[in-house]
Specification:
By secondary structure, this protein is an alpha+beta fold. It has one domain: Mth169, Chain: A (2-Layer Sandwich), CATH 3.30.1280. 35% of the residues lie in helices and 30% in strands.
Length: 79
């Protein structure tokens, strides 16, 4: 069994309202020193295949379903 992590985040320059609202809320609760907050989506996928094939499969998952390549970037790594 191979486990991969898939990290999907917005590309630079794309508005992140969830991150912005989270930062504002943390500051309104009195937390200090927060420079920025970015929202990131993570998936952990268990696969019954060799590591090299698992990474390739994870990249296909992103291309076909998990990520929008216009506004998001993704990274697939072994866990």
């Amino acid at each position: 069994m191979t486990v991969i992590d898939i990290r999907i985040e917005l590309k630079k320059g794309v508005a992140d309202p969830e991150g912005t609202n989270t930062k504002k809320t943390l500051e309104s609760l009195g937390f200090k020193g927060i420079q920025s907050v970015k929202s990131v989506k993570m998936f952990e996928v268990e696969l019954d295949m060799p590591e090299k094939e698992a990474i390739a499969a994870g990249e296909e998952y992103c291309k076909k379903l998990l990520a929008n390549p216009v506004v998001q970037s993704y990274k697939v790594t072994l866990k």
